[in-house]
Amino acid sequence: MYYVNPKNFSNLPIEYTWTQATYYRILACEYLHLSISKILYLDSDILCLNPINELFNYQFNDNIALVIGNIETKNRYIKSLNLNFKNTFYFNADVMLINITVWKKHNISSKFISLLSTHNDFKFFDQDVLNILLSNMIINISDRYNYICPLIANNSNINTDTIFVHFAGSTKPWQTWAKYHKLTKIWLSYKEKSPWYNQKLLSPQTYKQAKFMAKILKRNHKHLLSIYWYFKYSLWKIKYKLKYLFII
């Protein structure tokens, strides 16, 4: 276990859904380079469904990372980055197999902190910067290693050969308003086998989360509960707006 000093990232941007923990992968290569040559980074909202042996059979060929690029660079936001972006795809940085030796050779950690500290217009913070810095030094592999399934969508399905299912988006399987989604049942089945089996799911804490709860309950024909959460959503939103008004 390694202790990470949060002061290392005091100048980097954070938001409600992105804490300083999102930057810890950057230091992993600095701490581990003497003991291992590659590292598999996974975000906490990812579930492994099948063996990962094949992933480690890929050859880096002097590239820095294996990634899953499923967003075309013609996307308006990605084009707006306009920082020598050379790849034909934009990758999701929540699953990465990193070649530590080449990462260190190109001094990626220092460049990452420098770029993110001097630019405040990134929408996806670390992901945007990694796409810029690793341009032309990555290998795009099958999306079964990062199969994105937003729980806000009712029609999400996964293939039987999916390795990592990624619950991307603001709704997570450990939140109560996600429990009606069929894919949450898979996550819950693994939770029951884990040391955290007795941990309760998180209830809504903000007015936006209360609105999600109300909508999903309505979609699942839980009308009385939906009305209850719509009421809480309205009440919490009014309190938030009044508090913000008095602060101003």
Q: How do the strands of the widest beta sheet line up side by side?
A: 1-4-3-5
Shape: globular
Strand element count: 7
Structural class: alpha/beta
Strand content: 5-15%
- Unreliable stretches (pLDDT < 50, length at least 5) are none
Report, as a whole number of angstroms, the end-to-end distance.
44 Å
Helix-strand pattern? HEEEHEHHHEEEHHH
Count of runs of 4 or more consecutive helical residues:
8
Largest sheet: 4 strands, mixed
Radius of gyration: 20 Å
Give the overall average pLDDT.
Answer: 86
Helix-residue proportion: 25-40%
Would you mind describing this structure in some detail?
- The chain has 8 helices and 7 strands; from the N terminus they run αβββαβαααβββααα.
- Strands 1-4-3-5 form a 4-stranded mixed β-sheet. A 3-stranded mixed β-sheet has the order 2-7-6, with no helix packed on it.
- Helix 4 packs across helix 5 and helix 7 runs antiparallel to helix 8.
- With 248 residues, the chain is α/β, with parallel strands linked by helices.
Keywords summarizing the entry:
single chain; 248 residues; alpha/beta; four-stranded mixed beta sheet; three-stranded mixed beta sheet; 8 helices; 7 strands
